[in-house]
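Q: Structure tokens for this one, please.
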Amino acid sequence: NDANVAALGEMWLGGGKSCKSLIMVTLGTGVGGGIVIDGRIYNGASGCAGEIGHIICVDEKNITGNCSCGNRGCLEQIASATGIVKYARHYLDETDIPSVLRELLQEKGNISAKDVFDAGKAGDRAAEQIIDTVTNYLGRALAGISAVINPECILIGGGVSAAGEYLREKVAGHFRTQAFSGLKNTPVRLAALGNEAGISGAAYMMISERSREDNIL
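A: Here is the predicted structure, written as tokens:
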């Protein structure tokens, strides 16, 4: 799938260029992921490996509704662009902290994940609390996967990663707090290839497969 080939592309030419084993999480409308081990995508027994967005890790108090997969408490419910907006609305309904996000909701009738991160970067206290919760769960999920995979690095991609270093630092901080002691120094990086990651990964798959065939022959 697109997240898998994006992970390969980032390993080959992007943020994971020096790594042969990595975890990539893509934060967009949903939360996707790819796991690369020894330079190859790990697909699992039925092709479902790397479904990072459907790790159930969200506390009941922060869950809004059910996930698109039918479960409740999936990472995607709070860390996707859609999930961030839903959680932000939930948080604003549950608190009376003044926020530019409230003003945007009154003016436009809606907000975006970008609005939340822009407000957080500007020092909006409510937005900062929302982002801290979102990145805490993301760090928790990545710490759990890392305890199984022990990757050389972790990459964050997808549209939400446009929040840049602000997002990366917060995720890395929560990851280090919750990771197993031997994994706390695993680098957490931003993906570098953007929309080119998928096509780069597909090219890598073709080249590497041809190379293996040539070696066999």
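A few notes: The domain at 2-216 is CATH 3.30.420.40 (Nucleotidyltransferase; domain 5). The chain has one domain: 2-216.
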